[in-house]
Amino acid sequence: MEAQIEELLPFLHDGKMEVRQIAINNIVSFTPSSSEFFRVFLKHAKPLCKDLKALVKEDPVIAHDAIVSLINLSGEAVISAELNDEGFIKYLIFNIIISKTNILADLAAMLLSNISKNDSIAEKIMNLSGNPIEGLTTATSAVGQLADIFLKGVDKGYNPQCNFDYLASIFATLAAFPKGRTLLFAKDDTGLSPLSKIVCFTEHPSVIRRGGVITTIKNASFSIDDHTAFLDESDINVLPYILLPLCGPEEFDLDDMEGMPEDIQLLPPTKKREADAHLRVTLLESLVLLTTSRQGRDYLRAKKTYPVVQKMHLAEPEEDVKEVAEQIVNMLMRDEAPEISEIQEDDEDAITEV
Q1: To 10 degrees, what angle do helices 277-290 and 305-315 make?
Q2: What is the SS3 assignment for 300-318?
Q3: How far apart are CA 99 and CA 336, in angstroms?
Q4: 187, 221, 300, 336: most buried, per Cβ within 10 A?
Q5: pTM, rounded to two decimals
Q6: Cβ-count burial of 322 within 10 angstroms (0-12 exposed, 13-18 middle, 19+ buried)?
Q7: pLDDT beyond 90 at 150
Q8: Which of 129, 127, 145 minimizes the C-alpha distance to 137?
Q9: How far apart are CA 191 and CA 200, in angstroms?
Q10: Hey, what long-range contacts does 206-210 have (CB within 8 A, 24 or more apart)?
């Protein structure tokens, strides 16, 4: 069977479209990593990726199978290296993802998410720019344009075939780079940053969307110089979007609610806390990062972050989650020395970017 698959590969660039379609339609089912023939494709990575990249630009039926094949294979370094191609990355973003009608936009976003784990590809994405698109975006950076389509395209609001949830994973990856954080905090000509358009989805039903957004918030929190904009109620105002998923149905005392963000006051008895323990940890780690400056600690105290974390801690079943909550409590409840303006975490408590 391995020999038969290898015999199929040259037909991916056959002169006849119907032959290429039959070839890719037969090949795609063998590309998942669970396939016993998965390694066959890695042996032929260079010519295979050249053909698949060309097929992505063809008829949607052919392009669909080509993109799915690349998604399945792209976790391998030998494949992502062959996709480190600025022209191909530009095509994915500007011809497929940022499209009001392309039915493959979500698959292209999934592929871009996978390959953005390659640092060189992430760098290319951060350097890309394009023309503003009427009705969608005035941004010129690729990151800015992707943020606009992520916001406007939620729940198939822009492209009726696609929801763009996988873009959240790309933002999370880019936010792990200083340059990516700079782009995410940069304001456009309307005074809004990409982050201000992203942070509102921390309670979205799609775990792909909210998980990527929550990780983006954590990684963006490493930019201490931008904490003012991050917390400012007239700017990004991230705190309510961190605290809301940490809230359950518990009621707060009236004294605790004074100063608390309005969005988390008087929550209904049906309110559910974030179900994913890893995401709860990530939200708490964002708060830890926001307490690394005196200004951040004072703001979190004023906004009554402590009662939220306290009630969450009491209801938390996972020990590792409780440990992070305790870090926040310790940071917020301790006395401040007047001469200390910033606290550095101990190495053993340092949070690693994801």
Answers
A1: 150
A2: HHHCCHHHHHHHHHHHCCC
A3: 52
A4: 221
A5: 0.92
A6: middle
A7: yes
A8: 145
A9: 17
A10: 206/163, 206/165, 207/276, 207/279, 208/165, 208/166, 208/168, 208/169, 209/154, 209/163, 209/165, 209/168, 210/168, 210/245, 210/279
